[in-house]
Amino acid sequence: MRALMLAAVLALIPSLASAQFYAEGFGGIAEVPDIGTKNYSIDIPSVGLLDASSKLKYKQTFSGGAEAGVHLLGWRLGAGWDTASTHLDKGTITGTLNGAPYVFEGTGDEIADALGLSFNNNLHIVSANLYYNFPVPIVQPFIGFGAGSAFIENASTEIALSASAGARVPLGSRAYVGARYRFTYIQGPQDDIGITYKPIMLHSVSLILGVNLGL
C-alpha cells in the first residue's frame, strides 16, 4: 500500500511542476429577471398595515469582480468575488392596506415615495469555482461550476450556485483576455423589514483580463 501511494505521488510531481497560478478581473452587464416575494405584513409609519406580495422588475446593471486560483491538468480551481448593484425599475404591490384592497404599480422611486420601501440592494458573492478547459489551441473554451455565499445589503446571507461558460485567448506567454457568461442561483433571502424573496436568478456577461503565473 505504501509503495502504491509513493508511486501515485511520484506520478503527480511532473504535473505539479507545470501548475500555474492565475489572477483575473472582470466586468460587464448583469440582468435579474422578475423577482417575486412571498406574502408579508408590515406596519408602515404614517401609512398603515400593509399585507401584500410584490412583483419586482430590475434594471440591467454593471457587474464586476475578481478571481484567483490554480490551473492544473486542464482544470482550474479558483476563489472568486462577484458584485452587482440592483436597482428597481418598476414593481407591483398587491394585497390590502389597513384591511382594504390595495394595488400599487410604479417605479422604484414612486414606491419609495409612497410606501417608504426600497428594493435596491448591493450584492456580493464569494464562491469556490471549478472549471474544465477544453484542449483547443488559440481560443481556449471552458465551462465551470461554483458554490458559495451571497451577501445582500440589508438582507440575509444565502447560498449561491453558479454555472459558467466562456473562452480565453492568450496575449503572449502570460496575459490573456476572455469573455464569460454566468448564471447564478441565489436562495431567496429575507430583508431587514421581514420581506422574504423567492429565489433570485442572475445572468451576467463579462469581459476578462488575466495573467498566468507559473510555479
Structure explained in plain terms:
The chain is mainly β. It has a domain at 20-35 and 59-89 and 120-214: Porin, CATH 2.40.160. It is 11% helix and 65% strand. The strands form 2 sheets. The protein has an 8-stranded antiparallel beta barrel with strand order 1-5-6-9-10-11-12-13. Strands 2, 3, 4, 7 and 8 form a 5-stranded antiparallel β-sheet that branches. The longest helix has 16 residues, at 2-17. The protein is elongated and about 65 Å long. The two termini are 30 Å apart. The relative contact order is 0.20. The model is unreliable at 3-16 (pLDDT under 50).
Draw up the topology in text.
Elements: H1 2-17, E1 20-31, E2 35-36, E3 40-44, E4 48-58, E5 61-72, E6 75-86, E7 88-97, E8 100-107, H2 108-115, E9 121-133, E10 140-152, E11 158-171, E12 175-186, E13 200-214
Antiparallel strand pairs: 1-5, 1-13, 2-4, 3-4, 4-7, 5-6, 6-9, 7-8, 9-10, 10-11, 11-12, 12-13
